[in-house]
Sequence to fold (274 residues):
Amino acid sequence: MTERSGTRISRIAPQRRHTLQFLREIRAFSPVFLDTEVDMSAVQRLRSDARERGERSSVLTYVLYATARVLARHPQANAAIRGGGRPKVARYPSVNGKITLDKTVGGERIVLSTVLTDLQNTGLAEIQRRIEHHRDGDPQVMPEYAGTRLLHRLPWPVGGWLFRLGVRPLSRRATTFGTFAVTSLSHRPVDGFASVGGTTITLGLGQVAERPVVRDGRVTVAPTMRLTLTFDHRVIDGAEAADVLAEIKAALETFEQPSAEPTAPAAAVQQGAR
Fold:
C-alpha cells in the first residue's frame, strides 16, 4: 500500500511474528539494569591459543561457560516467575542459556534464538560446537526451528495461543526461554547495550576493544568489554544481581583453560521463544 505522499505502508513481515509474540509475552517483566567493564585479556589469550591449535572459540562461548557456573551457585537467579496477584517462582537444576542469532529468512533479516541446555556441565569445546551448529545452519530447514516456522504461517490469534501454551508453564520455561539469556553485538562498533531476554538474568555483550585501564597504579592498555546485566526485579533484588555480575566479571578476568572439561552428552539444543 502506498499513500499519496509516497510513503509505503505494509503489514509486518510474517517472519517477524515470533518476535512480536515474544515482546507481547514479556510485558510484565520488571527490568533493572547494571553494567560493568571486563578486562578480557585472559579470554583473548585463550582464544589466541585456540587459534594456534586450529580451533575456533568465540567470546560468547566463554561468557556462556562462565555464567552457567556462576548461576549454578545462585539458584535464586536461575529461576522464572509466573502470575500477578499470587505469583509462583520456579528454580531450575539445569542452567540453560538462550542466545540470539542474526538470520535472514525469506529475504527478511530477523532475530532468532535457541536454548543451549545443561551448560553448567558442558565444556568450552561443546558449547562452541553448539553455537556453530545454529550459527551456520539454515533455519528454513532445521528441525529446531519448526515451531518458529509454524508461527510464521499461522493466523495471529492462533499463533499467539500456541506461543503462550509453549512458554507460560513454568515446567517448560527453562527449555523454551532458557534460565538466562545472552545477546551479543560485539561484531559491530557497539560498546554497550541493555536487553530484556525474558529471563531473570539477561546479559548484553558489547565489542571487545583496546582501552586504557589502571593496573598497579599505572595506566596501560588492555582489551575490555562492556557487560550489561538486566534482571527481573520480581524474582531477585539488586544485591543478588550485583553479586552475579561481579562473579561473572571475575570469572572472565581470571579465566583459565579447564584441565579436564566435562564430557557430558550433547544435550538437546532447543528452539527458544523468540
Observations:
- The helical segments are 17-25, 41-52, 59-72, 124-136, 146-153, 156-167, 170-176, 238-253.
